[in-house]
Amino acid sequence: MINNRWLAPVALLATTLLLNACAPLIVGGAATTASVAHDRRTAGTVVEDQSIELRIRSALNKDPELGKQAHINITSYNGVVLLSGEAPTSAMRERAGAIARRDKKVRRVHNEIQVAAPSSMMTRSSDSWITTKVKTAMLSVKLKGFDPTRIKVVTENGTVFLLGLVTHSEADAATEKARQVKGVQRIVKLFEYLD
């Protein structure tokens, strides 16, 4: 029998994982197949994006300074890479961008790493909560054919990054919903447009 005091935190964690698309990595192939069915990227591109993230993470971890002193998140969507997080110096920030650009499958790099000390666990938890709230808000978009699972949401220190293959009207609707979420300080649109 599950203790009731754990029910809310477990439900919150499960919701966060599902809304952040981490669940396919946890539950396996069936969930991956379901998520790819809604994605505008090909299945091969989805897998390649995951591989890009792993290769860049591995390369960053091999750098003795970046691996130990920086907090860098890597998000790849359709071969476009977003680097977010913090690095203590501008030289380290630039080095991380150069490492990401070396990957042959990367089409473009958006280096949004801030020159600062790594964020606290409290800030990272707040960012995860903001991401969850933004994804939840997008469920209420009233636009024919709009599928919120096609938009990747990344939050870093209150800044929300939006990625995806979308139409201009989908981008506008998603951005407006994100703008209404409490805690969002800034929105950066990194969409690729279909129209």
UniProtKB/TrEMBL annotation:
It comes from Thiogranum longum. Residues 1-21 form the signal peptide. The keyword Transmembrane helix does not apply. InterPro entries: BON_dom (IPR007055), Lipoprotein_DolP (IPR051686), Transpt-assoc_nodulatn_dom_bac (IPR014004). It holds the Pfam family BON. NCBIfam families: PRK11023.1 (NF008247). Residues 48-117, 126-195 form the BON domain. SMART domains: BON. This is Osmotically-inducible protein OsmY. Keywords: Signal.
